[in-house]
């Protein structure tokens, strides 16, 4: 989660390999899966390919969005609607008609686009994903828990029936 320009700079720094950032090389398997012969070869090219994303979920982040979007190396802003709603409205999830929430979301999208950044949104179902895809570059459908719940309900109904 990013709320300030300092937070955004730290995310970029921790996401990139030296000399740009401070990310560790870790396992050698990344280089092999990306077609490089050695970890050093992978690290030499990886900074050009790494997508750096920051979650925007606080009132401070909305207030500081222009400065956050100016951070070089930050590629995408991901709106976490529940946490943003909690920060702005005091409850989550948002109902979707609260002007303060909608205004904040529009501000994030417009500012990101102005600075050439991608912007994404987390949604709860296919209908919301379809609508969000008209505005956002990335739509994350968080249906894993709901899918498991539906499966368990169906299986329990079979077991009980």
TrEMBL record:
Which residues belong to any copy of the HpcH/HpaI aldolase/citrate lyase domain? 1-131
Gene3D superfamilies tied to this protein? Phosphoenolpyruvate-binding domains (3.20.20.60)
Q: Give a yes or no for keyword Metal-binding in this entry.
A: yes
**UniProt keyword annotations, A-Z:** Lyase, Metal-binding
Pfam families on file: HpcH_HpaI
Q: Which PANTHER family match?
A: 2-KETO-3-DEOXY-L-RHAMNONATE ALDOLASE, HPCH_HPAI ALDOLASE_CITRATE LYASE DOMAIN-CONTAINING PROTEIN
Q: What is this protein called?
A: HpcH/HpaI aldolase/citrate lyase domain-containing protein
Organism in which the protein naturally occurs: Zasmidium cellare (Wine cellar mold)
């Amino acid at each position: 989660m990013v709320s300030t320009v300092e937070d955004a700079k730290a995310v970029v720094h921790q996401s990139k390999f030296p000399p740009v950032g401070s990310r560790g090389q870790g396992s050698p398997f990344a280089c092999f899966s990306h077609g490089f012969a050695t970890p050093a070869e992978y690290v030499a090219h990886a900074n050009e390919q790494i997508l750096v994303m920051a979650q925007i979920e606080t009132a401070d982040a909305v207030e500081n969005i222009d400065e956050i979007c100016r951070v070089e190396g930050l590629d995408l802003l991901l709106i976490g609607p529940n946490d943003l709603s909690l920060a702005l409205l005091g409850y989550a999830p948002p109902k979707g008609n609260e002007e303060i929430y909608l205004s904040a979301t529009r501000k994030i999208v417009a500012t990101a686009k102005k600075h050439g950044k991608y912007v994404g949104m987390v949604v709860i179902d296919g209908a919301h994903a379809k609508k969000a895809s008209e505005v956002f570059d990335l739509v994350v459908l968080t249906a894993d828990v709901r899918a498991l719940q539906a499966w368990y309900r169906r299986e329990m109904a079979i077991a009980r029936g």
